[in-house]
Design a protein that fits this description.
By secondary structure, the chain is mostly beta strands. The chain contains two helices and four strands; from the N terminus they run E-E-H-E-E-H. The radius of gyration is 29 Å and the shape is elongated. It comes from Lojkania enalia.
Length: about 120
């Protein structure tokens, strides 16, 4: 599972060490050598788990799909984005921070206004 590209559809076999990686950053983090660049690329589809080769010099629009299951693997990368969130206890343990709109304050229900009831009753 790649932490750099969240929607990775294929794993790529590195030509230098012949290991499988989801992206070049994953190779850079784990390997002690630079990535050897090659036009002949070997992919493993994550949907059907089958391997196939593509030549990057002759890459066409039809080459954006797995030849076995037609999974579209050339997508715009979705990368994790930093976000600002409120830190607190787990709401499953301590639900006091959650506001439930169904719970309302204690409100007296009456057919007339309770606030001016004393004036009307005399």
């Amino acid at each position: 599972m790649c932490k750099h590209i969240l929607n990775a559809q294929v794993a790529i076999r590195s030509p230098c060490c012949r290991k499988w990686f989801d992206c070049a950053e994953c190779h850079q983090e784990t390997a002690d050598h630079p990535l050897l660049q090659s036009f002949e690329m070997t992919f493993a589809c994550k949907k059907c788990k089958k391997c196939f080769r593509k030549d990057a010099r002759e890459f066409e629009e039809s080459d954006e799909y797995c030849p076995h299951c037609d999974n579209h693997f050339v997508l715009e990368a979705v990368t994790p984005k930093p976000s600002l969130q409120v830190e607190g206890e787990d709401v499953r343990v301590d639900p006091r921070m959650l506001k439930d709109d169904r719970v309302q304050g204690e409100e007296q229900r009456s057919i007339f206004n309770v606030k001016d009831a004393a004036d009307r009753l005399g």
